[in-house]
């Protein structure tokens, strides 16, 4: 059963989090993400959850990580400047394999940029922003329904792989209002808890993910951002321990790309193929709708990270990929690494979406 | 009291230098914790980055060794998400008052139910002896080679002004009082701040011709002045010697608390 509601994207995100069982939110106000925090502040106390406005974004993600070690599903929401501040602790979450969800309602950067205007300028920062090698999952919703569903999914993926998961939305999707179907219940994939006697707290299973040793349950686990062995003990000058750990942190995500990656394929026979994620997908969908006879294809990435490098191959006749983004071609660079055909990056800066006409024009020239 | 089971003996020897005061601070803290009758399951230790922040790694409870300066923010998450846990932090003067200064005053303002044990050794020990926000005027460090010219923070006064419910300051010379102070901190709801002026023979000592721990202890003994006495002098309009280490209980009160169970 579902219930039809007319919701703002940011509210749908908060509602999705609550449906997913998120009971801890720490954040710091920043446009255009603030509605997520405000809605959590209203909802969580009534459900026995905790909302706290921290002194900054560094503290927000820190509190989220701390809460996660007690077993709570925990999240924060921010925009570019806040995401930049969170980076050191996001690396800490990756290194300590702490499940957490980070919602980024992207706005124009660099710096304070355009607080009220959309962008997709944080796509590379989300993937590579903290120092060292690690891997994360990023989801890109392109409407209110997906703001809800992907937030639920983000919690499941964070728990499944014990990583930070990013909901990479933007001002357009965050502030748009649309009707959506709110389900009665959602699928929940809980983190796998450490229960086996004698098992080391950072000893990976076959899927490279260790069982989670909840605080307060007698595991007496030492959690550190230093390079550590399977007992969790610091081991900072043994090259093999470091290499094994870092490769596992990357591989547990990259090795599961086919399980993780989600994308939509439309018109797989097409020669001219649009690639998109997030809000620009709406413009591409309009182009395909307005020019049904042209046979344009569309690859919509729901999970830009990890990048599904086999997905473009689903378009066997593809001659050109056209990639509209609200940045200077951040994900287009990634696509270029994986295809032989030319990739035409169509950057759009300033906050507006590409118009269907301008995208159609680019596509017509390529036909 | 025997609290050997609270140590990760398989991680010893520790990384601490011979003569370092951190070991004394850990002992006094564990002595206070065990005297509360808590089980290891009831306690979580957190820390930031620095020599002093390595302490939780030697204690056999759940522990979160976090990022430089941020332990109080992580601890806020742990405590609010699971108020049943008794949350104790180890931190250093750099960790707490430089990079973590903002989290420090806000944790005190919220008066969240945590106990913070600060090893104030006047210096950045871990990175090799650079100046910190508590380096005394005139003291040398690798980044104040001509003597520090900046006015240092008084961390206990800062904690008190920011709203902590319990504040006291001692030194490793005063182990009984320090243990009692940590216990009082654990017993007092709200944020408890215990500052321990501590010797760092390697960093601070080397730069200031104080390599001998006995000399440090002599300073802690001779220059320490009880808070009551310092307050009395001030009241009488008499000067407190500038190099006095004011020790004792600064405050114990019952402002509203965040994160207390039930
Ligand atoms: C973000 C960041 N900046 C700098 C450092 C380097 N660093 C490690 S420990 C430390 C200072 C520690 O001093 P203090 O907190 O006084 O602890 P002590 O070692 O004296 O116990 C610094 C600057 C770091 N680890 N992280
Ligand atoms: S450098 Fe100083 S604070 Fe660090 S372990 Fe050595 S004596 Fe202790």
Order of helices and strands of chain A: EHEHEHEHEEHEHEHEEHHEEHEEHEH
Rough outline of chain B: globular
- The CATH top-level class label of the largest domain in chain A: Alpha Beta
* Termini gap of chain A: 44 Å
The oligomeric state of the chains shown is heterodimer
Structural class of chain B: alpha/beta
Shape of chain A: globular
Helix count of chain A equals: 12
Low-confidence stretches of chain A: none
What is the CATH T-level topology of the largest domain in chain A? Answer: Rossmann fold
Strand content of chain A: 15-25%
Question: Which small-molecule ligands are present, each listed once?
Answer: thiamine diphosphate, iron/sulfur cluster
Radius of gyration of chain A: 21 Å
Give a brief description.
The complex is a heterodimer of chains A (about 375) and B (about 260). With about 375 residues, chain A is α/β, with parallel strands linked by helices.
SSE diagram, text form:
The complex is a heterodimer of chains A (367) and B (262).
Chain A: E1 2-8, H1 9-19, E2 22-27, H2 34-43, E3 50-53, H3 57-68, E4 73-78, H4 80-96, E5 100-108, E6 114-118, H5 123-128, E7 137-139, H6 144-161, E8 164-170, H7 171-175, E9 177-183, E10 222-224, H8 239-254, H9 257-260, E11 263-266, E12 272-276, H10 280-290, E13 297-301, E14 320-325, H11 330-338, E15 343-347, H12 356-366
Parallel strand pairs in A: 2-3, 2-4, 4-5, 5-8, 7-8, 12-13, 12-14, 14-15
Antiparallel strand pairs in A: 1-9, 5-6, 11-13
Helix pairs in contact in A: 1-2, 1-6, 3-4, 10-12
Chain B: H1 22-35, E1 43-47, E2 62-65, H2 71-81, E3 86-92, H3 93-99, H4 101-110, E4 115-120, E5 123-124, E6 130-131, H5 155-162, E7 166-170, H6 175-187, E8 192-197, H7 201-207, H8 213-223, E9 224-226, H9 227-235, E10 245-252
Parallel strand pairs in B: 1-2, 1-3, 3-4, 4-8, 7-8, 9-10
Antiparallel strand pairs in B: 5-6, 7-10
Helix pairs in contact in B: 1-6, 3-4, 4-5
The complex binds thiamine diphosphate and iron/sulfur cluster (SF4).
Iron/sulfur cluster is lined by residues 16-17, 20, 22, 51, 121, 125-126, 200-203 of chain B.
């Amino acid at each position: 059963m579902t219930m039809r509601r007319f919701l703002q994207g940011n509210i749908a995100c908060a509602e999705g989090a609550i449906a997913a069982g998120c009971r801890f939110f720490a954040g710091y106000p920043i446009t255009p993400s603030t509605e997520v925090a405000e809605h959590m502040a209203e909802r969580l106390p009534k459900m026995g959850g905790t909302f706290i406005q921290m002194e900054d974004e560094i503290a927000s993600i820190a509190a989220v990580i701390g809460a996660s070690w007690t077993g709570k599903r925990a999240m924060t929401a921010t925009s570019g400047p806040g995401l930049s501040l969170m980076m050191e602790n996001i690396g800490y979450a990756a290194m300590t394999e702490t499940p957490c969800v980070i919602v980024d309602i992207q706005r124009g950067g660099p710096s304070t940029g355009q607080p009220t205007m959309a962008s997709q300028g944080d796509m590379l920062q989300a993937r590579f922003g903290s120092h060292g090698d690690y891997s994360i999952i990023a989801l890109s919703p392109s409407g209110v329904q997906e703001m809800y569903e992907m937030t639920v999914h983000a919690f499941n993926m964070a728990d499944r792989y014990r990583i930070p998961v990013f909901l990479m939305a933007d001002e357009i999707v965050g502030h748009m209002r649309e009707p959506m179907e709110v389900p009665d219940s959602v699928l929940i994939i809980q983190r796998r808890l450490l229960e086996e006697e004698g098992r080391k707290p950072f000893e990976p299973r076959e899927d490279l993910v260790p069982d989670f040793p909840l605080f307060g349950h007698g595991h007496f686990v030492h959690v550190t951002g230093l390079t550590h062995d399977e007992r969790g003990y610091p081991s900072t000058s043994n090259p093999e321990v470091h290499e094994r750990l870092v490769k596992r942190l990357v591989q547990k995500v990259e090795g599961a790309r086919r399980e993780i990656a989600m994308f939509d394929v439309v018109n797989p026979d097409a020669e001219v193929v649009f690639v998109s994620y997030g809000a620009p997908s709406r413009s591409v969908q309009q182009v395909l709708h307005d020019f049904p006879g042209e046979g344009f294809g569309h690859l919509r990435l729901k999970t830009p990270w990890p990048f599904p490098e086999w997905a473009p191959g689903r378009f066997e006749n593809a001659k050109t990929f056209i990639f509209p983004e609200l940045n200077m071609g951040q994900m287009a660079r990634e696509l270029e690494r994986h295809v032989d055909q030319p990739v035409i990056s169509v950057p759009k800066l300033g906050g507006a979406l590409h118009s269907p006409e301008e995208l159609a024009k680019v596509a017509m020239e390529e036909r | 009291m025997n609290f050997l089971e609270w140590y990760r003996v398989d991680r010893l020897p520790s990384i601490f230098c011979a003569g370092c005061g951190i070991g004394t601070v850990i002992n006094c803290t564990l002595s206070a914790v065990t005297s509360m009758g808590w089980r290891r399951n009831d306690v979580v230790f957190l820390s930031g980055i620095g020599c002093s922040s390595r302490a939780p790694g030697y204690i056999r409870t759940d522990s979160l060794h976090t990022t430089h300066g941020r332990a109080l923010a992580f601890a806020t998450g742990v405590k609010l998400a699971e108020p049943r846990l008794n949350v104790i932090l180890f931190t250093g003067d750099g960790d707490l008052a430089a990079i973590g200064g903002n989290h420090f005053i806000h944790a005190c303002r919220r008066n969240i139910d945590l106990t913070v044990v600060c090893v104030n050794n006047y210096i950045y020990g871990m990175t090799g002896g650079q100046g910190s926000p508590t380096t005394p005027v005139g003291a040398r460090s690798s980044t104040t080679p001509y003597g520090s010219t900046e006015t240092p923070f008084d961390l206990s006064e800062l904690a008190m002004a920011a709203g902590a419910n319990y504040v006291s300051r001692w030194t490793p010379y005063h182990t009984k009082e320090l243990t009692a102070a940590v216990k009082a901190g654990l017993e007092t709801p709200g944020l408890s701040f215990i500052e321990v002026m501590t010797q760092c023979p390697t960093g601070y000592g080397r730069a200031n011709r104080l390599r001998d721990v006995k000399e440090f202890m002599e300073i802690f003994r001779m220059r320490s002045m009880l808070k009551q006495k310092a307050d009395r002098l001030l009241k009488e309009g008499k000067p407190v010697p500038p190099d006095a280490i004011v020790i004792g209980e600064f405050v114990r009160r019952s402002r509203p608390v965040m994160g207390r169970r039930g």
